[in-house]
Specification:
With 523 residues, the protein is of the alpha+beta class. It has 3 domains: 91 residues, Pdz3 Domain (Roll), CATH 2.30.42.10; 219 residues, Alpha-Beta Complex (2-enoyl-CoA Hydratase, Chain A, domain 1); 105 residues, no CATH class. The protein is 33% helix and 23% strand. The protein has 17 helices and 24 strands. Strands 2, 5, 6, 7, 8, 9 and 10 form a 7-stranded antiparallel sheet that branches. The two termini are 38 Å apart.
Length: 523
């Protein structure tokens, strides 16, 4: 695949990606009990003061401090991280699970703010904003014809709950400008993407991270699926980098009987804290399946490990990331914060699932490449395990520590060896960009279609596969899609469904070609 130059400026206003794999107990830190007398601290403060007072050129001492903090943390472990004040609000919103705004998915398209879709029941939908609208002004602030960075754009669309903003729109379908006044409101950032039925007895819940609202979202989904007759629940934590441990523990608790071990932590002083299940879980008797992959980390691995070690259900997929370190957050007083590793996780069998990090952070986070080349992503036999790290589940099955959760049932990457570039491309933002442009050019073609009619229409032609290949070429990507046509068509149809209908329809289509889901349906 030859790549020249391509721009994928997709911005999902309702979902902010985490910049780091956060996982762990993000507890409130108590600084008054945490400092010790150390002359080196005084040395560092005196140096910064000296530079600020007497250095020959103007220097941003804040940036020097940032570099110093990062340099210190890099000497510790890959998950002890510094979060600058510019990043902190974004990370906090994602973990809190909401923000205050107007409620649209959008991206910058040809120097204008194009609405992909207003969020259901959000301020924009209630005000009559439609997919394809361009937002020209927020009050009197011009948003078009300028390459606005997100940190300049977001404050114009966000604000206090109940605050008003007048938006000037251009509606392409009617070739006219209009103004709408709306009140900003709390917009959820969903951590549970979807809860749907795979067949009459199997329910499916996709969790993208463990935020403050995750258990509440999951519980709503679980109760809905139980009401529909689900006897088996599939929890999908693929590509879930973790988050708040307590949310994963609550979910595990729903599946385990009273006093079943869930997780333990051990700090530098040898203190061990154990967490056990309580009584009255919502799904203690039904069948449980957890889906994991190489990007399932931290709290995702704690959930999978608790289910596996208690012999409560099956783990399907590929070996998880291998993050078994607990972080605690300490605010630094200027809007920034440090997340410091303070303990290690252990699964109920006593396993530490933390993989080694002695080769440095770059090697640690790029281990996917090593797994790819050694064949682990395609053959379970290629997974390297240490006999010295054998552990036993509740019923005596052998499991291994030392680097992630090894699934009970292995499922390779979708497709044949060599399909990875196409698969990764189809999972990128360029698909959303392409679909929006196609709809923007001829939205009337899909007006009045229900979901079933849309599927029949899409399945009957390959025109969008051909258009997508030409679209890639126009953006500098040379890729022959002939041998990948079914995969490409499935991804495109799913994205069309998401933008035309709802998130559930996206998953309904996408999951039909999913090898792990196919494995689930065999059982």
């Amino acid at each position: 695949m030859k790549i020249k130059k391509i721009y994928w400026p997709i911005v999902l206003f309702s979902a902010i990606a985490l910049g780091v794999i956060v996982g762990g107990k993000l507890n409130t830190f108590s600084p008054q009990n945490s400092y010790s007398s150390n002359s080196n601290k005084s040395k560092l403060n005196r140096l910064i003061d000296f530079i600020e007072r007497d250095y020959v050129d103007q220097v941003d001492t804040d940036s020097i401090v940032d570099l110093t903090v990062n340099g210190i943390l890099e000497k510790l472990d890959p998950h002890s991280v510094y979060i600058s004040k510019n990043e902190f609000d974004e990370v906090s919103e994602s973990m809190r699970g909401d923000f205050v705004g107007i409620g649209v998915n959008f991206y910058m398209y040809k120097d204008s703010v194009a609405v992909i879709k207003p969020l259901q029941n959000g301020p924009s939908e209630k005000a009559g904003i439609k997919s394809g609208d361009r937002i020209l002004y927020a009050d009197k602030y011009k948003l078009f014809g300028r390459k606005l960075p997100n940190d300049s754009l977001f404050p114009k669309l966000r604000g206090e709950v109940g605050s008003e903003v007048t938006l000037t729109l251009f509606r392409k379908s009617e070739n006219k400008q209009l103004k709408v006044k709306l009140k900003r409101d709390v917009i959820p950032i969903k951590s549970v993407d979807v809860a749907l039925m795979l067949d009459p007895t199997i329910g499916y819940i996709k969790i993208n991270r463990f935020a403050e609202s995750t258990y509440k979202e999951y519980k709503e989904g679980l109760l809905k699926l139980k009401a529909k007759g689900a006897k088996t629940i599939v929890i999908d934590v693929r590509d879930n980098g973790g988050g708040y441990l307590d949310q994963a523990v609550k979910i595990a608790d729903d599946f385990l009987v009273k006093d079943a071990p869930i997780v333990s932590t051990k700090n530098k002083k040898g203190r061990i804290d154990k967490t056990k299940a309580t009584s009255g879980g919502l799904f203690e008797n039904g069948k449980i399946i957890i889906l994991i992959n190489e990007n399932s980390a931290s709290a995702s691995e704690i959930l999978a490990g608790a289910i596996q070690d208690n012999d409560r259900g099956q783990i399907i997929g590929r070996r998880s990331f291998g993050k078994g370190l607990v972080q605690r957050e300490m605010p630094l007083g200027d809007g920034s914060a440090v997340r410091l590793t303070v303990a290690r996780y252990y699964t109920p069998s006593g396993r530490s699932i933390q993989k080694p990090y002695v080769e440095g952070n770059e090697e640690y986070f790029n281990e996917f490449e090593k797994r790819f080349y050694n064949g682990e992503l395609y053959e379970k036999d290629s997974i390297k395990v240490a006999d010295s790290l054998k552990f036993k589940t509740l019923k005596g099955r052998t499991v291994y520590g030392g680097g992630g959760i090894i699934p009970d049932i292995f499922v390779p990457l979708n497709g044949k060896h060599g399909d990875e570039a196409t698969e990764m491309l189809m999972q990128s933002g360029i698909v959303s960009y392409f679909v929006f442009e196609q709809l923007d050019q001829n939205r009337k073609e899909f007006e009045g279609l229900n979901f079933d009619s849309f599927k029949k229409k899409f399945e009957a032609t390959n025109v969008y596969v051909d258009k997508f290949e030409n679209y890639l070429k126009s953006n500098g990507v040379s890729l022959n899609l002939n041998s990948h046509e079914p995969m490409v068509k499935n991804y495109l149809m799913a994205e069309f469904a998401r933008q035309l209908f709802e998130e559930e329809k996206y998953f309904e289509i996408k999951l039909k070609n999913d090898l792990m889901i196919q494995e689930v349906l065999k059982r």
